[in-house]
Structure formats: C-alpha cells, structure tokens
Amino acid sequence: MNQPVISLFAGCGGLDLGFSQAGFDVIWANEFDREIWQTYEANHPQTFLDKRSIRDIPSEEIPDCIGIIGGPPCQSWSEAGSQRGIEDERGQLFLEYVRVLRDKQPLFFLAENVSGLLHQKHRQALNNIIAAFEEAGYWVTYKLLNAVDYQVPQDRKRVILVGYHMQLNQRFDFTHLIPHSQPLTLKDAIWDLRETAIPAIDKCKTNGNTCQIPNHEYMTGGFSSIYMSRNRVRSWDEPSFTIQAGGRHAPIHPQANKMIYFDKDKFIFDPNSPLPYRRLSVRECARIQTFPDNFIFDYKNLNAGYKMIGNAVPVRLSYELATTILRNLLNASEKTVLQTEIMGLPLSLR
C-alpha cells in the first residue's frame, strides 16, 4: 500500500511523526529554519529535507504524493500578536501552501494553525483562504480542537483544516474523531522525570551529554510581569497549560504550589510551597507534546529546544487525525479506483 505524503513548514516534525505512526510515508519535507535541520534529519532519517524557502521551490521539484500536511507560520494570526493576518508576509505563506497544493493535486491536505485564525477580524481572510483551497479543487472543513481530548496531557486549542479532493466526493467529518473521556494528566506524562531535571548552564546553554535523560534540562532566570500576571502552575492531577514556543513562557513544574493572586494581573509564588518553582524542562515539554523519549532535540541554546517543541503539533493528535484520514481514503477506495484515472498520479490505496 503506497501512501506518500509531503510536509510543508515541517518544523521538527511532530505532525510528520504522527502521520508516519499511522502508516503514511513522509517522503519529503521542507523547513527553512536552520536551527531545526539537525533535529529533523536525525529523527526522520527516511525523509528528504529540502532546506530552501518554500518560495524558491518550484512545484515540479516536489515529489508526487497523496497528501500534503503542515502548518504555515502562525505568528500573524496569534491572539497574542498583532493579528495582521493575510497582510503579514508570514500570513502570505498560506498562499505558497495553496500554490503547491494546486500544482501537485494530492488526494488530501491537512493544515494546522492557532485559534486566532478564527478571530472575527480575520473572517474575510479565512473565507479567502478557503476559497483558494476550493479553487484548487478541494472541499474544506475546519474545526477548533483541544488536544487534551485526544490523549494529549495539555490544554491546547488549534484550528485544523482538512481538504479532500473534489473527485473523492466526500468531506472530512470531524465527528469521526472520537474524543477520549478521561484526559491525561501531568502525573501520567512526567511523574517519572520529577527528580532528574537539571538547570541550564549560564541560564540558557545546554548541558549537552551530561543530562541523565536527553534534553531533561530547564531554563533558569527571572519571570516577566506578563508571565506573573496569572497562575502558571497546574497540579499533578491536571493536564498542562499550553506548551508555548519559548522557554521563558514554559509552565511551572507541578512540584510547586499554585501561584497566589496578589492584585489585578499580578500573581506571586507561594512562599510556603514545599518545593521550589521551576520551569518545565525541555524533555518534560516534549513528553507533554507526546514526543517519544527517543526523539532527541539538538540545540545549543535551550530556547531553540522549547521553540521546536512548542511550535509542533502534538504527535498523538497528529496520529488521531492521520488514522481518520487514512480510514476515509481506504473507504473511498472501495467505491472508486484511486489510481491513475483520478489525477494521473501513479498511486493506489488498494
């Protein structure tokens, strides 16, 4: 069974790993950030990584595939950012995604983005994006999902857009994603790591191979007033706060008491906490994002590790989406011959 997919804006490859675990073959990926290259190549040895800007890659140099996955940069849509959306250069990378999709004509695509994409001020831009996908030949459905519902020990809301080629005569149905009734907690995810984390060297530099567990080191240093504006501690029996793309905003380890409200937009650390306040380690964040322990992150500065992990799609959520898509495609193959007759591609799902 041949199920090649390509990955755009791949990052360290959380989305790619979930699709691989579901049975897809990620044959080609694109990532322009040089800080990520070594991590991606070490953990996805079967995938060719194209390191050019997507703007510089002609569509004919990208392999044929049955699916395109990836989340274009989301900073311009972030609720915490300026929300410039499609007017921002990074927002316009959506159009490069559409360009590749239009030229390659796979059976499906999946894109992930932050919840800010659904902000009312971006309604027209979102409509334009969906219209562009439809003009490329795809029926699009989208939904705001919380990863905690899909065996990810973290509250993490993201917009998932899935498009099926119109010749498949079906749309992705989010009701086929079955939420799990019992959320995973921080204790489920990182309890066994609680006594082995070590601080970074000189605030942000890695300890390298001296970590007993790879990447199990945490950023030190002060906390900004923005960080201290609300509680940043979840208990062991709760899922984590969202893992963000930066060490300074990593949640506090659950060994400490929850922070105490002091004044409007101001919390303080509990002086009676039985254990000290520290940020989650890089490995703990990776666990919460459901990366396996044998997925090793390469960096000199810890912030690069936190950034890779925080920008990734949780592996388990990716797997759930991928298995649902694969099941849909296999069902479609019972009704339609998904071979060269569909789009002239030498592909088969039978």
From TrEMBL:
Q: What is the official name of this protein in its record?
A: DNA (cytosine-5-)-methyltransferase
Q: What family is this protein classified in?
A: Belongs to the class I-like SAM-binding methyltransferase superfamily. C5-methyltransferase family.
Protein origin, superkingdom? Bacteria
Organism this protein belongs to: Desertifilum tharense IPPAS B-1220
One of this protein's GO BP terms?
Answer: negative regulation of gene expression via chromosomal CpG island methylation
One of this protein's Pfam families, by short name?
DNA_methylase
Enzyme Commission number(s) of this protein: 2.1.1.37
* PANTHER family reported for this sequence: CYTOSINE-SPECIFIC METHYLTRANSFERASE, DNA (CYTOSINE-5)-METHYLTRANSFERASE 1
Q: Which UniProt keywords apply?
A: Methyltransferase, Restriction system, S-adenosyl-L-methionine, Transferase
